[in-house]
Amino acid sequence: MKTPFALFVCGTALLVASPALAQDDYGDDTDLPDTAADIFSGPHIELSAGLDHVGFKSYKDIDPTQNFSTFKTGAVYGGALGYDTPLTEHLTIGVEFGLTTSSVKYTNPALTAGAFNASQINVGRDLSFGLRLGYAFSKKTQVFAKLAYTNTHFGVSGTDGSEVIYDSIASNGARVGIGVEQHFTRALYVKLEYDRSQYGSGPYNYLRTTPDASYFDLRNSRDQLLASVGVRF
Q1: Distance CA 154, CA 151 (A)
Q2: At 178, is the secondary structure helix, strand, or coil?
Q3: Is the Cα dihedral 164, 165, 166, 172 positive or negative?
Q4: Per-residue pLDDT tens over the stretch 1-54
């Protein structure tokens, strides 16, 4: 779980330490807004890609030998749009909506022959909506923190060795994040962000066609490191 956060810290340090990015002016800045917070205000849209580190925990109601707890890493990509408004010369507050998808999946290596068990779990689309608070050090650099609601689709395939049944659920959770945003021009920016999400219980119930043992309760967490390119209007 520590890998995405460590990468975020290293990337942030490189952005902040770069002499070229540390300059406060854009050349002829006569048309720029008055304050640093004004630069980071207004509507924005961005595309993102990065690292997705997902934790899977399963609880089975009859056969405890099939419980599992593991982490898998893959790629995440998508985008976001939002709107920010200045509170002071340096502080901004805003809302943001995000949509991503993931390549992460878990394949169960320890299936019991003749028993119906979860064989594969896939992470699908993720929707998020939340608040963001930013602090602009200059007209080029802002750090921010966010708190969001997240809803992620998880798909589960179960098998007894012969029959395969697929079921799915959209799990609700909470997400916290921190990041740094760097402007190259008045409109164009790049962003590096670390997010941590925790999801509530997600039951997968195969009781329609299988024995009572075929009930799984997944409790997922995830860490994400995202790099974004965006435009402010």
Answers
A1: 10
A2: strand
A3: negative
A4: 555 555 555 555 445 444 444 444 555 455 556 899 999 999 999 999 999 999
Number of other CB atoms surrounding residue 209 within 10 Å: 9
Phi-psi map region of 159: left, alpha, beta (phi>0 left; psi -120 to 50 alpha): beta
Work out the burial of residue 189: count CB atoms within 10 Å of its CB; fewer than 13 is exposed, 13-18 middle, 19 or more buried: buried
User: What pLDDT shows up at residue 74?
Assistant: 96
Helices (H), 31-91: 36-39
Q: How many residues does the chain have?
A: 233
Question: For all residues of the chain together, what is the average pLDDT?
Answer: 81
pLDDT digits (tens, 9 = 90+) for 149-162: 999 988 878 777 77
Contact residues for 215 (Cβ-Cβ < 8 A; gap 6+)? 60, 61, 62, 203, 204, 205, 206, 207
The token pair at 127 is 């929707």
Contact predicate 44/232, CB 8 Å:
yes
The two tokens of residue 202 are: 């997600």
Cα end-to-end distance, the chain, whole Å: 36
Whether 44 and 79 have beta carbons less than 8 Å apart is answered as no
| Per-residue tokens: 31 | 């048309």
